[in-house]
């Protein structure tokens, strides 16, 4: 890896690139290698300038050795996917252009050559039925490097899919750039992205229809045991058409409208648009809008007790320039409040309103890091440390909304993951309760703090952390996040904007690990030196006989020198 400047010619069989670009860039990277293989190119992280469009900033990928080759695809700031592109030959070119806005753009891309149809590409597959299970290659052993597996799940009609990862352990990094699992709300990776996860977790996802796509992508660095997942189905809710739903996630809003429902209103899908007219739907069996929360003209409102995202689908009757229907529109609203997301989809047509509500939540994770640069996360568990060692913790909000702020309200330590009666406060109501705690200023979508390692008394070896995190609109000056530490006397009765708990651990002392290893070593040595039972009985008998003979000799000597011994004893007593 590295931070290559504007463009390069690449010939390695695989490579990862961290790219930083400023304004007015026009950079070309060419990948070429004289082999009978094709190239898989993965943009696992990209950050363009705020409010940029595809016309002014983008990544264009070409299927060949120059930008004159056929266009494979385009990546923009509002791309709702982890773009993966494959060449048809042994060469590929990508072009990154940026506009004149002063902003540091960040990209992480890696590629590798592979042979389509080979045994190493044999993973993923089709899953049908109301429920099922699947796992990463080699699970529970370590998954192989350079794998791209895609599972397509199709459940019975008029149902939605609940996906649960029962065991999940992938390589951890800040933006899930290396090894990751991506889940899409539909039949392919062109559907809306429900989420991208890595590290250690037990994530769950819910589709808005009877189809879902799951992707596993790995690189060539660290490899862990992967995942085991199961899915089940539940009927789609009413009272709207069965295929009319709204799904809100930490990253996006997804609206699915049935054609029969639109027809009942007298409209065709060609006349649909959001607040931003350039955001148009994808039309399959249904009409689907899927877009990041902070895009397509979405209006965000901080209501004190919740954050609301609202967008409106305008409907113009087909074949006409006028309408006599009053306030004809579909409004989609996602309300993030108190550990839940209230999703409301309603239509105002002829003054009639229909509602649909479901569930969801922000996606928040927590991890330890090696230093206060917060660049290298701790990727193993338990995390063994020294007593009084400084530990660095970071809470991350995974959201496409750039105007959200993470505030660590409360952090509690406990010797057990259940957080029972024995707990210890590090942070409470935004106030540092432990003398060693230092909180860092808010940084983008991260909340950070450090503290010194400790242990609980009564021989309890582990420490777990549970943090209550508050999410606020960064543009609101009087939000809970902006108020900082609140003492009991100053505490306001109003609820938080949005609050959730996240847990990390266990932490254990390194000396306990050394003690355990030493004990195990002594046990092995003693086992090697321990004689068998017959030898033991022989040595015991010989020792008893020897002691008996010694006692007889001592008795004879004492009897023979009785007076001398008594005299010496008296002298000693008088002395």
UniProtKB/TrEMBL annotation:
- The molecule here is called CUZD1 protein
Q: Where is the CUB domain?
A: 6-114, 123-234
What UniProt keywords apply to this chain's record, in alphabetical order?
Disulfide bond, Glycoprotein, Membrane, Repeat, Signal, Transmembrane, Transmembrane helix
At the top level, the lineage of the source is Eukaryota
- Which Gene3D superfamilies does this chain map to? Spermadhesin, CUB domain (2.60.120.290), Zona pellucida, ZP-C domain (2.60.40.4100), Zona pellucida, ZP-N domain (2.60.40.3210)
The record ties this protein, via InterPro entries, to: CUB_dom, Sperma_CUB_dom_sf, ZP-C, ZP-C_dom, ZP-N, ZP_chr, ZP_dom
Pinpoint the ZP domain residues.
247-488
Spell out the SUPFAM superfamilies in the cross-references.
Answer: Spermadhesin, CUB domain (SSF49854)
Q: Where are the transmembrane segments?
A: 538-558
Query: Mind telling me which CDD domains this protein's record contains?
Result: CUB (cd00041)
């Amino acid at each position: 890896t590295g931070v290559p400047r504007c463009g390069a010619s690449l010939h390695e069989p695989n490579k990862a690139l961290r790219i930083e670009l400023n304004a007015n860039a026009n950079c070309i990277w060419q990948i070429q290698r004289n082999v009978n293989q094709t190239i898989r190119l993965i943009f696992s992280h990209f950050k363009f300038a705020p409010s940029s469009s595809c016309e002014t900033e983008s990544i264009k990928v070409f299927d060949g050795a120059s930008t004159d080759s056929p266009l494979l695809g385009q990546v923009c700031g509002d791309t709702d996917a982890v773009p993966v592109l494959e060449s048809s030959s042994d060469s590929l070119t990508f072009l990154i252009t940026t506009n004149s806005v002063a902003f540091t753009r960040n990209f992480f891309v890696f590629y590798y050559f592979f042979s389509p149809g080979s045994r190493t590409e044999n993973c993923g597959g089709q899953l049908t039925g109301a429920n099922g299970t699947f796992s990463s290659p080699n699970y529970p052993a370590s998954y192989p490097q350079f794998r791209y597996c895609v599972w397509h799940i199709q459940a019975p009609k008029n149902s939605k899919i609940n996906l649960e990862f029962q065991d999940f352990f992938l390589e951890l990094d800040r933006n899930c750039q290396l090894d990751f699992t991506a889940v899409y709300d539909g039949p392919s990776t062109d559907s809306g992205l429900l989420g991208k996860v890595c590290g250690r977790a037990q994530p769950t996802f819910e589709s808005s229809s009877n189809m879902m796509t799951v992707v596993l992508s790995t690189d060539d660095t660290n490899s862990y045991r992967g995942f085991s997942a199961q899915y089940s189905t539940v009927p789609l809710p009413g009272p709207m058409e069965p295929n009319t739903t709204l799904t809100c996630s930490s990253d996006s809003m997804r609206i699915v409208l049935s054609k029969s429902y639109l027809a009942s209103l007298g409209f065709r899908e060609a006349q649909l648009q959001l607040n931003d007219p350039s955001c148009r739907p994808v039309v399959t069996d249904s009409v689907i809008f899927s877009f990041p929360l902070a895009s397509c003209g979405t209006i965000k409102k901080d209501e004190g007790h919740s954050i609301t995202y609202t967008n409106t689908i305008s409907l113009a009757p087909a074949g006409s320039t006028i309408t006599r229907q009053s306030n004809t529109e579909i409004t989609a609203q996602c309300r993030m409040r108190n550990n839940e997301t209230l999703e409301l989809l309603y239509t105002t047509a002829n003054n009639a309103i229909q509602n649909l509500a479901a569930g969801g939540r922000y996606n928040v994770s927590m991890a330890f890091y090696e230093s206060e640069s917060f660049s290298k996360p701790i990727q193993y568990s338990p995390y063994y440390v020294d007593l009084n060692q400084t530990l660095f913790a970071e809470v991350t909000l995974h959201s496409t909304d750039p105007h959200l702020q993470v505030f660590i309200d409360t952090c509690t330590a406990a010797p057990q993951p259940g957080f029972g009666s024995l707990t210890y406060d590090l942070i409470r109501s935004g106030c540092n309760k432990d003398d060693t705690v230092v909180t860092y200023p808010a940084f983008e979508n991260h909340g950070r703090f450090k503290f010194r390692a400790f242990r609980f008394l009564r021989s309890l070896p582990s420490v777990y952390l549970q943090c209550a995190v508050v999410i606020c609109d960064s543009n609101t000056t009087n939000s809970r996040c902006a108020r900082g530490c609140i003492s009991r006397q100053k505490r306001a009765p109003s609820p938080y904007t949005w609050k959730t708990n996240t847990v990390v651990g266990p932490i254990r002392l390194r000396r306990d690990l050394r003690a355990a290893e030493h004990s195990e070593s002594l046990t092995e040595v003693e086992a090697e030196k321990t004689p068998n039972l017959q030898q033991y009985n022989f040595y015991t008998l010989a020792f008893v006989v020897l002691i008996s003979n010694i006692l007889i000799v001592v008795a004879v000597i004492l009897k023979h020198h009785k007076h001398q011994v008594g005299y010496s004893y008296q002298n000693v007593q008088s002395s």
